[in-house]
Specification:
Blueprint (H helix, E strand, L loop, with lengths): L6 H13 L16 E3 L7 H8 L3 E3 L2 H9 L16 H4 L7 H15 L12 E6 L2 H13 L3 E2 L14 E5 L11 H5 L3 E3 L2 H8 L12 H22 L2
Parallel strand pairs: 1-2, 3-4, 3-5, 5-6
Helix pairs in contact: 2-6
Length: 237
């Protein structure tokens, strides 16, 4: 796979891969069957985040240039983003992209070193609410790439005991359009989708409570206040 590579340059890389006996996935969206992602500069998009979440090799294009010279696919480690071989490339990226550039090797090693962990979101069971179909597709692909199980919104009520996360990206008009009451009452984290990128790029992992939806916080606070009043009432009897 490729991302953030200009078309003329990408055409040359495709030819190199094919000449060396490899195959190319040139889909516009993430391809789970691909083994490598080639990118010049880290960019927070579906392909990169999905590749990180699934532990794929994420390499600088120089990997293909050097492989062409040697007439064989070289060991990837010297060209992997986040590894020691890419330190020289870090000088050319924006400061706010450094964490994104450093995390591919961390997740690949973590996932490859744990045979019981099938992706960064292993054991997550998730419901995603998003009005924009493109965003819904992106969130779903990233989560599934990381091993999460997606629960259709139509089945959410019957799966409340097993759902681990709810992500909501809807336009706000007179409050959230999604009723979070049942999720909050089952202690399910109701989060902003931005949590996915931060979860993959931050080390140590970010505080999940920082990404809880405002509407969910209000419900949680109301529930806590109600429980406190009930406890005080019981104590005075």
């Amino acid at each position: 796979m490729f991302t953030n590579i200009p078309e003329p340059e990408k055409t040359n890389y495709i030819e190199i891969i094919q000449n060396l006996g490899g195959t190319v996935s040139d889909e516009k969206t993430f391809d789970l069957t691909a083994t490598h992602l080639i990118l010049r500069n880290p960019i927070k998009n579906e392909k990169l985040l999905s590749s990180i979440a699934s532990g794929k090799w994420i390499l600088h294009p120089d990997y293909l240039k050097e492989s062409e010279v040697q007439k064989r696919f070289l060991p990837e480690i010297d060209f992997e983003w986040g590894g020691p071989g890419t330190c020289k490339y870090m000088q050319n990226i924006a400061p706010n992209s450094e964490k994104l550039a450093k995390c591919p090797i961390r997740w690949r090693k973590k996932l490859n070193g744990n045979k019981d962990m099938f992706g960064a979101f292993h054991n997550w069971k998730v419901v995603v609410f998003a009005e924009d179909k493109a965003k819904l597709s992106t969130y779903t692909k990233i989560l599934e790439a990381g091993g999460a199980e997606i629960v259709p919104t139509s089945d959410a009520d019957s799966a409340l005991d097993t759902i681990s996360h709810v992500f909501v990206d809807v336009k706000k008009k007179n409050g959230c359009k999604v009723d979070l009451t049942s999720f909050v009452s089952h202690n399910i984290k109701c989060l902003k989708p931005e949590y996915l990128a931060f979860y993959l790029t931050e080390d140590p992992l970010p505080d999940v409570d920082s990404f809880i939806l405002a509407e969910a916080k209000e419900l949680m606070d109301a529930s806590a206040s109600s429980s406190k009043r009930h406890a005080m009432s019981s104590a005075t009897r």
